[in-house]
Amino acid sequence: DLMRRMGYKVQSILVDDRMGGDQQSRSDEALRVSLRMGESAIILGEVRGEEAKTLYQSMRVGRAGSSIMGTIHGDSAESVYQRVVTDMGVTPEAFLATDVIITLGTVRDRRNGNLIRRVNDIVCTCDEPGMFFDISEITHLTESPLLKRTLRNSQLGKKDIAKEITARGLMRATLAEAGKIDEKYLGPDWIMISNDILNNNLKDRPADHVANLLRQRIGLKELNRWMIEDF
Fold first, then answer.
1. DSSP sequence for 152-186
2. Domain hosting residue 226, numbered range
């Protein structure tokens, strides 16, 4: 609802057990309907059946919109690859349409015993099926196969892309820090504000200066030195 109020067209498609056919065929048909809606971002919850083949076929021929995100059960990039290729029948070559795999895990908070989620791995696919490259650090990302693929489809140079990645990282860290004070800074409205500041200022300013503009907008002090060193 919040994104709709901000002007985004958001359409949910739910798979209902009362629909005809089995679960996999209903999920596959729902995805086909989404693909026919045209250029868009698609978020697919729990990839687990025939819809995986449809999704990867569309991604390979460029009919799957500008952004595709999905969730799947797996404790590593390798296990995700095996599940998609071996269990779901997607070809290894088609799997290369995947750009990034983020693996989440749970740990128990020593302070109160509650389970909390954390990011275990962030990897991108390599040119060889089943091989992955760690991009959890920005120095890794700037030398990754993902960046090389991006450069092939971009008018920007490597230095410009690295600068934008650094600025976006600093700005997301700023929002995360502000979110400890007020959760509104973690919402889509502040992501849009952050993106507007970046798009209007990145060309003529260093990355940390652009991030400081966001901090000034929020009312925080200048960028912490540890944030600059991390990025």
1. HT-SS-HHHHHHHHHHHHHHHHHHHHHHTT-GGGG
2. 159-230
